[in-house]
């Protein structure tokens, strides 16, 4: 067809050779653009998404339509159809979408023929960007093609990345370790959490729960911060926020200890007072089943290595015996045994190489023949690539230990006033931290045995929630307080 058309041009118009070349090139170029144009104008001409997680820009189509579920998006505007096919597993599908100039957009899920729209898996992006995935109760079919219709407020480019994604932290067993450094995550592909009740997470129902875990660093409360929250969900509710539950125990038997619910771009929640080394599980569930992107971190918490289990410490005569289980061992892995006298500065006191060359579990033990009066232990697992992961902290106390009683006037206005009662003389460090984990004041007090009074002006600190950390070689504590204007 192309060559015949060119011959007809030559015979009919018979321009000079240069003009014939120009006409021929223009026709071929326009025909090439026509054959390769991304239409997306209707279900039959949907643009196929590449499931590799790479962002690509797609021009909105020339078609237009009105809203189906987003009742606030009035009027007719561009609609563009896309298609994707599930894999054989089938895994969840995670699609990140940004509309032209980040204007609101509506995302509808259809069957391959676009006869049926799945309203439970459709989304309204009020801010023009967000994560789309199947609804938590959607029955995904393997090797099946689905269609997305994206209605944008204006014409332009739609930025989309798509990939197969089933999160590991969908269950307690796959809980993601968190520490003081924020990690970026999402709960868009998560399902209702098993092993927990909605009431334990301060929720009425559970839709898309994500599991996290950490180890308490020092005696006292720990604080989970969820920042840069961006959520989307159905047509009537686009709340940013989470319901959060704290648990101790094990994945086979979780014990709820506290819960919290909050909304906004920043949500924080704290535990009850816990002893150093306690393993804590955190369950978060998006408000009203919201799909959210966020950053999550913990104050007074340490990342737990998923490759180390059952770490315990035993006092045997004059020495301390440490035991743990290595999981999913690989060649070149090794463990460093680290000890601290104050739960802050750690030194390596031993090293054990992995004895397995397969994924089998192995029991290990290490004897510390020269323990301190108070010893804090952790295991540093180093894999063959040089990456490091830490176990929870285990503390062992031998002989007499110093005890601390903290009595704090709370809330605080202009001055921090507290009474510290110790069972022996001690030099106690004082740190005040804000909710972001930043130290806003550091000091110390030389305590005598018995009662000690401490006063410090806090007039320069803005009103808000803070944490008082007290630490020495023998004592650690964290106490929350409120600063008023």
Q: Can you walk me through this structure?
A:
Helix content is 7%, strand content 47%. The protein has 485 residues and is mainly β. Strands 1, 3, 4, 6, 7 and 9 form a 6-stranded mixed beta sheet that branches. Strand 34 and strand 35 (476-483) form a beta hairpin. The protein starts with a helix and ends with a strand.
Low-confidence stretches: 1-15, 22-37
- For the CA atoms, what is the radius of gyration? 30 Å
Question: Structural class, from secondary structure content?
Answer: mainly beta
Helix content: under 10%
CATH architecture of the largest domain: Sandwich
SSE layout and pairing:
Elements: H1 2-13, H2 17-36, E1 47-48, E2 56-59, E3 64-65, E4 77-85, E5 93-98, E6 105-110, E7 123-125, E8 129-132, E9 145-152, E10 157-164, E11 176-177, E12 183-186, E13 209-216, E14 223-232, E15 241-250, E16 253-263, E17 267-270, E18 279-286, E19 291-299, E20 301-302, E21 308-316, E22 319-326, E23 334-340, E24 347-353, E25 362-368, E26 374-382, E27 388-390, E28 394-397, E29 404-408, E30 415-422, E31 426-434, E32 439-447, E33 450-457, E34 464-471, E35 476-483
Parallel strand pairs: 1-4, 11-13
Antiparallel strand pairs: 2-10, 3-4, 4-9, 5-8, 5-10, 6-7, 6-9, 12-19, 13-18, 13-20, 14-17, 14-19, 15-16, 15-18, 21-22, 22-25, 23-24, 23-26, 26-27, 26-28, 29-30, 30-33, 31-32, 31-34, 34-35
């Amino acid at each position: 067809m192309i060559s015949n058309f060119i011959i007809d041009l030559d015979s009919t118009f018979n321009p000079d050779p240069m003009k014939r070349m120009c006409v021929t090139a223009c026709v071929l170029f326009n025909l090439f653009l026509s054959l390769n144009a991304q239409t997306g104008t209707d279900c039959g001409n949907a643009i196929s998404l590449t499931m590799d997680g790479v962002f690509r820009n797609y021009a909105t189509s020339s078609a237009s339509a009105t809203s189906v579920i987003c009742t606030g998006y009035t009027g007719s505007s561009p609609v563009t159809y896309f298609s994707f096919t599930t894999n054989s597993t089938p895994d969840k599908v995670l699609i990140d979408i940004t509309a032209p100039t980040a204007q609101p957009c509506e995302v509808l899920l259809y069957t391959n023929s676009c006869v049926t729209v799945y309203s439970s898996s459709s989304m309204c992006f009020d801010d023009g960007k967000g994560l789309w995935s199947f609804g938590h109760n959607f029955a995904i079919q393997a090797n099946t093609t689905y269609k997305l219709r994206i209605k944008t407020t204006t014409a332009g480019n739609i930025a989309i990345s798509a990939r197969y994604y089933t999160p590991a932290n969908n269950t307690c067993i796959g809980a993601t370790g968190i520490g003081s450094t924020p990690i970026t995550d999402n709960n868009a592909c998560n399902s209702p959490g098993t092993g927990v009740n909605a009431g334990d997470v301060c929720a009425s129902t559970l839709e898309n729960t994500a599991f996290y875990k950490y180890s308490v660093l020092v005696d006292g409360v720990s604080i989970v911060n969820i920042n840069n929250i961006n959520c989307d969900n159905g047509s009537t509710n686009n709340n940013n926020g989470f319901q959060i539950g704290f648990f101790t125990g094990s994945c086979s038997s979780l014990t709820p200890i506290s819960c919290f619910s909050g909304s906004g771009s920043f949500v924080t929640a704290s535990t009850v007072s816990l002893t150093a080394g306690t393993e804590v599980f955190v369950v978060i569930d998006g408000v009203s089943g919201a799909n959210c992107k966020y950053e999550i971190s913990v104050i007074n918490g340490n990342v737990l290595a998923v490759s180390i289990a059952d770490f315990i410490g035993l006092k045997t005569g004059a020495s301390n015996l440490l035991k743990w289980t290595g999981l999913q061992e690989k060649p070149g892995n090794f463990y460093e045994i680290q000890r601290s006298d104050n739960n802050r500065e750690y030194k390596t006191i031993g090293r054990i190489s992995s004895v397995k060359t397969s994924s089998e579990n192995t029991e290990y033990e290490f004897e510390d023949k020269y323990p301190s009066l108070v010893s804090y232990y952790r295991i540093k697992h180093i894999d063959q690539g040089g990456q490091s992961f830490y176990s929870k902290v285990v503390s062992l106390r031998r002989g007499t230990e110093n005890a601390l009683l903290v009595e704090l006037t709370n809330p605080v206005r202009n001055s921090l006033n507290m009474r510290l009662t110790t069972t022996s003389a001690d030099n106690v460090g004082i740190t005040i931290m804000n909710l972001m984990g930043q130290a806003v004041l550091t000091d110390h007090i030389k305590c005598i045995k018995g009662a000690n009074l401490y006063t410090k002006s806090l007039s320069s600190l803005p009103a808000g929630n803070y944490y008082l950390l007290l630490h020495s070689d023998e004592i650690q504590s964290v106490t929350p307080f409120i600063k008023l204007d």
